[in-house]
Design goal:
2 copies of one chain form a homodimer. Chain A is α/β, with parallel strands linked by helices and 703 residues long. Chain A has 24 helices and 30 strands. In chain A, β8 and β9 form a beta hairpin. About 1% of the residues of chain A have low confidence.
C-alpha cells in the first residue's frame, strides 16, 4: 500500500480542531485553511458547533462519510479509542500528532503498541505519533503545525525531529527552496524512514529525497532499499547522534565513536546515500541535485571577476580532491584571442575576468569553458564591484545554461548580500543554484561527483567460492549444542580452512619429542602454543612462544609450558602443545567481520602492527563484498601505499588480501550465527604467494 | 608614525573626482558625501568648475592648503607626478586606487618602486596601489568604492582582495555587523598587513582584528608583532592560497601542500592568530570575540527546546574536541526541583526543554547552568514551534547575559528564518551573537577556547644550553670559504656533538684490520659506512652496511666497499670506512629544521620508519622552542601514544626528544647560515637513557 492517501487526500478530518489560537488543534486547522486546501475539511470537536468558520462534528462517526485522512490532535490516552473508531469507519490513513508515547517511557510504549495493533488489524497506516504533521505544497495540503507552506518544488523531505522540520520550512521559505513533500515521522510507530524513502522514490513530483535521522530502524532493509532507490534519485541524509555523546543524547546505540561513525558511513556509501554534515550542506546539495545535471568527472572550471574568490575556490577544489580543469589548446586560444577577454588578468583556470568585467565577458568565458571537453563542471564567482552588472550577469548565466547542449552542471556564487540580491533571485528562478561561499559551492560539486561515480559503478557481482560448507555447519552446530559462544583457535582455523584459507603448517604434540619432530619437519623458527579448548587468551597465561630456533629450545619450551600453565589455570583441559611454522617474512594485516546490530555483517580491513592500531587506520564495508569492493577497502586505508610497496621496496599480493576478504564475507553471509571473526595476523607475501591466516578468533551469537 | 591621518583626516582631496556616474572617481566622492563625512572635501578635476555640487580645484596646489589625506584616482602613469606634488605640498597620507602597478608586470613594478621612493623621501605613507580604499564608519569616512558604509562597530578588517572587501561590506550591512575600520591594502607598496595589524592593535575603537591575506610580506616580523598584538586583541585571519593549486592561483610560493599549510599553521599558532577556513567562519568568530568574554575552559552547556538541534550540537562538541559539561549536583537538583522545568524531557546536558517551552523555562535553565562552576560556555538553541516565544526568549537571554556576574560566554542559535527574524535582531542588539546552525556556533566556541588557552599560556622561556659555539663557527666558516653548501655526515655530527648530541660510538678505519679492531671494541652488531666528503648519499653507492655481526664480516664488507665504490664514483676522495655502533633497541624518530623563506627556522618532528613517512605524521613549529613547545610538538603527532608506550609496552624518554628539539632549535637560532638539518634516525630508548643521533644531514644557505 502506498502513502497516497496521506499525500493527496480528498478529505481530511481534524479530531481536536480548536477555536482557541495558539493551541495545536487551532494552528493545524488554520494552516490547512490558509494553505487553500481544495478538499473537504471535517473539524471534529464535541463542544463546538463551528470552528474557524467551518461546521464542526461532535465525533468521527457523525460525519456520515469516511474521511481519507484523519488527524488526531488529542491527549495520548484518548488515542486508542479514536483509532478504534477510525478502524470501524474504514479510515486508512491517520496522522497522530500527540506525544506521550514511546518517547515518554514504558507506559507510553505500551500505548504505542496498542495503537499499532489496531492499525495492523484494520490495514490502516499511521504517521507519528509525536510528530508535527505533513505538508504537500503542490496539493495545498498543510496538515501540520510547522508554519506556512513553502513553495512547491522537487525536494521531498522527512525528519525524525519535528521542530527541526519547522525550522527548515521557515528557512526554505526565506531561501525560496521548493518542496514536493515534507513529512514529520515522529516516533515512526508504523510509517518509518524506509516507507517514506520508498514512497518518495516512487513519487513523480520528487527528484531529490532528503531527510534528518537520529536512528535507523531496520539497517539491513535500509541498505537494500536505499541502494535501489539511489539509482533513481539521490538520497541526502543528515544523520545526527554520530558521536558517542551525540548518540547518548539521541539515546540510540552507544559504542566507540569511530565504530558507530564507520558503520553508518560504509552503509551510506554502499547504498549511494549522500551524507550531509549539516542542514546547510543538505540544503546546498539538494538544490544542485534538484536542478542541475550530474557531472561526468571531477574537473572544475572556475570563472571569477577577482583574484580572492578564485583562490578560495581553488583551495577548496584541491582540499575536496576535485581537479582544476586544464583547458584544451582550443579553449586557451579562443579565450586569448577574444575581444571580450582582452583585459582579463588570467585566462587559465581559475579565469580572472577582472573587476570591470561586465556580463558579456562572463557570458563569453562561460560559454567557452562549457564547450571544452576537459571541463566537467563550471563554477561562476562574482564579487560586486561598483560597475559590476550583477543581475545582467545572472541573466547571462541562465541564458548560457539553457543553451548548454551536452549538459554540464553550472553553479554560481555571488558574494555579498543586498547588492547581489536581485541577481541571486534571477539565478534561482533560472535554476542555477546560488551559493554563499566558494567553499560551499565546491563541497556541493564534490557531492554531485561522488553520486555520479556511485551511480555509474559496475554491476555488483559477488563471487561465490567453492567451500566446504558442511564442515563449518558441523562445527557451529556442536558449539550451539554445547552453548559455547567462543570458537577456539583450533576450530576457528578449521572453519577458515574449509573456506579456502591457508593456516600455518604444524601439528599438536603431546610429548617434547613429538614436538621436536614436528619442528624438525617444518623447519625453524617455529611457534609453540598451548592447545586447550579452555584457554582462549593464550598469551595471557604464557601460552605462546615465538622465534623458537632449535630442537633443544622446542623441548625446553614444551616442558616449561606444561609445568607452568596447569598451575595458572588448574581447571583447563590441556590437549597438548601446537608447534607451528613461523611466518618471518611478509606483511601483517588484519581481516575481520563484526555483525552490526543494525546493518548486519560489516567486513573490516586494517594494517597490522601497533602503530596502525594507534592510528586506527581501519576500513569497514557491509558484506557480501564484490571483488571491486574488497579492493576499494584496501585502497581506502591511509597505509595502502605501504602494501603496494614504497621507495622501490617490493609490494605484497594485494589481490590475495582482497580474495581473503571476499572469502570471509562469504563465510559471514552463509553463517548468520557467526557474530565476529578476526584473522590477526593475516600474513601476506609478495605477488603470487599464498597468504597465511596465522591466528584467528571467532565468536558466535548468543542464543 | 601611526596611520591616524588615514583613519581620521580633517580634510580629504580626491584627485580624479568625476561628474560621470559609474566612474570610480564619481563613486568614491558620492560615497564620501553620502556617508556624511564632516571634514573638508577638495575634489580635484582640471576640466570642471564643480563636481557633485562641490567646488572643484584644477590641481592640488591651487587648493591653497595641505589636505590631510589625498586619494589618487587616476591612471597609473600620472601617479608619480602627482605623488611628487603631494610631497612638495607636505601631504603625509595618500591612498592610490589606480591599478597597473606590480600586479601588471615588470613595468608596473618599476612604477611602483618609483612612487615608494618618493614617499620614503617625503616621509609620506601610501595605502595601495590597486586597492578600493578605506572606510571608517565611526568617523563617517568612506573613501572607497566598496559601497555604502556599514554600521560602526569594533571589528577592524583589512583585505588583500579589494573585491572581497566590497562583498564583505555588503554582507555586513545585511547581517548588521559593525566595523571600526575597513582597509583595502591592495599591492601593499608601503602600508602592509603588519602596519595595519599594528595600527588596529593600537586603535581603541577596535576590539577584534580580522583580515584576508594571500601572501605575508615579512614572516619573521609577522610572528613577533602578531604575537604581541594577539595578547591584547584576537587576530582572525583568512589565508587563501594554501594549497598548491591555490598558491599558484595566488602566484605566491609553491611547494608541497602539506609544507606550505604546516608553515602557516604553526606560525599562526605560535602567534596566537586564529585561522579561519572561510569568510563565514571569520564573521561567525569575529562577532563572538567582539561581544563575548573568553571561556575559562572547554565545558559547554547546551539548552534546546527540541532533541534534534541538541543532538547536532552534541555531535559537534565531540568532533571539535570540546566537552559537554557535567552539571554539578546542585545544578541537577535545582533543575529537577524547579516548577518551570517540571515538563522538560531532559535536565541533563543537553537540556531539552520540550517544544512548548516558553521564555521563562529558557531563562531559568540558562541562569541555572551559568551559575554552575562546571560550565564554561552556554549555548542556547531554539527551534520555532507554533507556541514558541522567539523574541521574548531572546530578550530573556539578553537579560540573563546582562546579569551574568562572573562573565561566561553565551551564544545562541535560533533555527529558522522569518519566524526567528525579530528574535535574532533582539539577540544582536543585546550582543549575543546569533548563529545559523549548531555546528557553526560550536566551531565558534572552539575558536574562543583556543584563543583563551593561547592567551593564558605560560611565559615563553627559551632554555639556553651550554654549547661549544666556536667549534661550529669554525666548521661553518670553512664551508663558507670553500663554497660548500652541503655539510657531510662527519662534520654534521661534529656540529651536533658541539651542541650536546651524542652520536654512535665508532671510528674511521683505513685498513680492514683497523676496522675489525674498532668493531671488536664496540661490540656487535656494527654499521660500516663509506667515509668521504665527496659522497653525500652513501646508500646510493652501496656505502652503508648495517647488521654486520662478526670480525670476518667486517673485513669482507670493508674490502668489498673499497673495491666497488671507487669504480662507481672515481673522482671521490675516500678517507676510509667508518665503523659504528648499531642501535638495535629504541625507537627511531626524526628531528629536523628547515629555514622557511618567509618565517625563518621551522623545527620539525616526526616518527621514523616508512609507514609514518607515508602517513606524513610530522609537526612543525617556529624556532626558538621553549621546553613546553617542544613537548607540544611531540604530543601533537598522531603517533605520540606509541612513544609513551601502548599496551603495556615500555615507552621511550619523551623528555630526551624534547631536549633534542630544543638543542637543535638553539643551533638553528644561533647560526642563521644553516638552511636545513635532518637527524634521521634519532634513536631514543627508555626513560633515563641517552638518545643517539645516528645519522645527520645539514645544508648551508647558498651565498
Amino acid at each position: 500500500m502506498t502513502l497516497d492517501r496521506f499525500f493527496n487526500p480528498q478529505s481530511v478530518a481534524i479530531v481536536g480542531a480548536s477555536r482557541q489560537p495558539n493551541k495545536v488543534g487551532y494552528e493545524v486547522l488554520a494552516g490547512l485553511l490558509k494553505g487553500g486546501y481544495p478538499g473537504k475539511i471535517f473539524p471534529v470537536n464535541p463542544t463546538a458547533e463551528e470552528v474557524q468558520g467551518l461546521k464542526a462534528w461532535p465525533d468521527l462517526k457523525s460525519i456520515g462519510q469516511t474521511p481519507e485522512l484523519v488527524l488526531l490532535i488529542v491527549s495520548a490516552k484518548y488515542v486508542p479509542k479514536l483509532m478504534q473508531e477510525c478502524a470501524d469507519l474504514g479510515v486508512k490513513a491517520v496522522i497522530i500528532i500527540a506525544s506521550g508515547f514511546k518517547e515518554a517511557g514504558p507506559q507510553g510504549a505500551d500505548l504505542e503498541k496498542s495503537i499499532i495493533r489496531i492499525a495492523k488489524n484494520a490495514n490502516m497506516r499511521i504517521i507519528g505519533p509525536n510528530c508535527i504533521g505533513l505538508m504537500v505544497p503542490g496539493h495545498k495540503l498543510n496538515v501540520s503545525f510547522g508554519g506556512d507552506l513553502p513553495m512547491p518544488g522537487s525536494i521531498g523531505y522527512f525528519s525524525q525531529s519535528g521542530s527541526l522540520l519547522a525550522a527548515i520550512v521557515d528557512m526554505a521559505r526565506d531561501a525560496r527552496v521548493g518542496f514536493s513533500k515534507l513529512i514529520s515521522i515522529g516516533n515512526k510507530a508504523d510509517v518509518d524512514e524506509l516507507a517514506i524513502i520508498r514512497a518518495l522514490g516512487e513519487d513523480p513530483e520528487t527528484r531529490v529525497i532528503a531527510g534528518y535521522l537520529e536512528t535507523i530502524a531496520d539497517g539491513d532493509a535500509f541498505i537494500r532499499q536505499a541502494e535501489r532507490i539511489s539509482m533513481e534519485k539521490p538520497i541526502l541524509l543528515m544523520k545526527a547522534g554520530f558521536t558517542v555523546a551525540g548518540a547518548r543524547a539521541a539515546s540510540s546505540h552507544t559504542g566507540r565513536m569511530a565504530e558507530v561513525e564507520s558503520a553508518y558511513e560504509c552503509v551510506f556509501e554502499r547504498a549511494g546515500v549522500i551524507r550531509c554534515e549539516s542542514i546547510k550542506d543538505q540544503f546546498d546539495f539538494a538544490r544542485a541535485f534538484a536542478y542541475q545535471p550530474l557531472p561526468k568527472g571531477p574537473r572544475v572550471a572556475v570563472i571569477a571577476n577577482a583574484g580572492g574568490a578564485g583562490i578560495m575556490a581553488t583551495d577548496a577544489i584541491e582540499r575536496e580532491g576535485l581537479e582544476l580543469a586544464q583547458f584544451s589548446d582550443e579553449t586557451q586560444k579562443r579565450l586569448s584571442q577574444s575581444q571580450e577577454l582582452s583585459r582579463a588578468a588570467s585566462i587559465s583556470n581559475p579565469i580572472d575576468l577582472l573587476g570591470d568585467a561586465l556580463s558579456d565577458r562572463y557570458e563569453f568565458a562561460l560559454r567557452t569553458v562549457l564547450n571544452d571537453p576537459n571541463v566537467d563542471t563550471a563554477l561562476v564567482l562574482l564579487s560586486p564591484h561598483a560597475m559590476t552588472e550583477c543581475a545582467q550577469t545572472a541573466h547571462a548565466i541562465v541564458r548560457v545554461a539553457n543553451q548548454n547542449g551536452p549538459a554540464k552542471p553550472i553553479l554560481a556564487c555571488f558574494l555579498g548580500a543586498g547588492r547581489v540580491a536581485e541577481a541571486v533571485k534571477v539565478l534561482r528562478e533560472g535554476k542555477i543554484p546560488p551559493y554563499d561561499s566558494p567553499e560551499s559551492a565546491v563541497r556541493t560539486i564534490k557531492a554531485l561527483c561522488r553520486y555520479a561515480v556511485w551511480k555509474s559503478r559496475p554491476a555488483r557481482v559477488v563471487k561465490l567460492f567453492n567451500v566446504n560448507r558442511h564442515k563449518v555447519e558441523r562445527i557451529i552446530e556442536r558449539h550451539v549444542r554445547l552453548q559455547q559462544a567462543e570458537v577456539g583457535e583450533m576450530e576457528a582455523k578449521e572453519i577458515l580452512e574449509a573456506y579456502g584459507f591457508v593456516t600455518p603448517e604444524g601439528g599438536v604434540a603431546t610429548t617434547p619429542e613429538q614436538a621436536a619432530n614436528i619442528a624438525n619437519q617444518i623447519g625453524y623458527p617455529v611457534v609453540l602454543k598451548i592447545w586447550s579448548p579452555d584457554i582462549l587468551h593464550k598469551t595471557e597465561v604464557g601460552g605462546v612462544k615465538t622465534h623458537v630456533n632449535s630442537e633443544q629450545e622446542v623441548i625446553d619450551v614444551f616442558d616449561l609450558m606444561m609445568y607452568r600453565i596447569p598451575k595458572k589455570v588448574p581447571r583447563a583441559s590441556i590437549l597438548g602443545i601446537c608447534v607451528e611454522q613461523m611466518c618471518t617474512s611478509g606483511r601483517e594485516v588484519i581481516l575481520g567481520m563484526n555483525r552490526d546490530s543494525r546493518f548486519g555483517p560489516l567486513m573490516m580491513f586494517g594494517m597490522g602492527g601497533r602503530l596502525v592500531e594507534v592510528l586506527e587506520d581501519v576500513v569497514f564495508y557491509p558484506a557480501p563484498l564484490t571483488a571491486e569492493e574488497a579492493r576499494q577497502m584496501l585502497v581506502r586505508t591511509k597505509t595502502y601505499d605501504v602494501l603496494k610497496g614504497i621507495r622501490g621496496e617490493e609490494g605484497v599480493d594485494v589481490g590475495a588480501i582482497a580474495e581473503g576478504l571476499q572469502r570471509l564475507s562469504q563465510l559471514a553471509t552463509e553463517f548468520p550465527h557467526i557474530k565476529e571473526i578476526d584473522i590477526n595476523p593475516f600474513v601476506v607475501g609478495r605477488e603470487g604467494t599464498t597468504p597465511i591466516a596465522v591466528d584467528a578468533m571467532m565468536t558466535l551469537e548468543k542464543r
